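Hi R.,

Quick one: here's the Protein kinase domain-containing protein sequence you asked about.
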Amino acid sequence: MFLCLHNVVFDYQGGRQGQIALNWNERLRIIDSIARAIAFIHGQTPPTEKNMKMNVHGNIKSSNIMINIDLTARLSDYGFVQLADCVEDSESKERTRTNNIYCEDLSQKSDVFNFGLVLLDILAGVQDLSYINCIVKMEEKIKEGESTFFEFPVRGKERKQALKVLAIALASTNSFSETRPSIQQIMLDLSDILNSSK
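And here's the predicted structure, written out as tokens:
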């Protein structure tokens, strides 16, 4: 049985109506599983012609992430955005891309940006792009515990881990795509976080 991540409740006190409360370790397991799925896609052979990019998902968002009962994640809609966004002009026979609201272009860096948004949703229920700059400005207060950010109780070692995941989310959503980490770098950072929990 799969549940959509968008419908999984993250509020520890009982969550939004119809959703399930998750603790930090469960969230971390889901984050790791999503990152592994993206790394698998990004590891596919790049296209040799100007056809579909099999090494880009193109539409990573909470509503396209399915969570299994063992808290492993599966990505849905892989490649669909390329099919939907490419429209063939019958007269000129040219294919053009329409805009996707979740990314500036179809690339691995846009997948990383969207993954950063998913992380913010998992950490604090933030789904609105306009909040990213506010979070960046409040990052020090969040680190020092002066500002409530996380949607769940987290203390000690778990808080340090959650703050490291927040740092990954903010690096991933940087407005300059060239400064965003690769999914491979994110996997290394997550591996360090997971090892610190043992």
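The chain has one domain: 2-196.

Cheers,
M.
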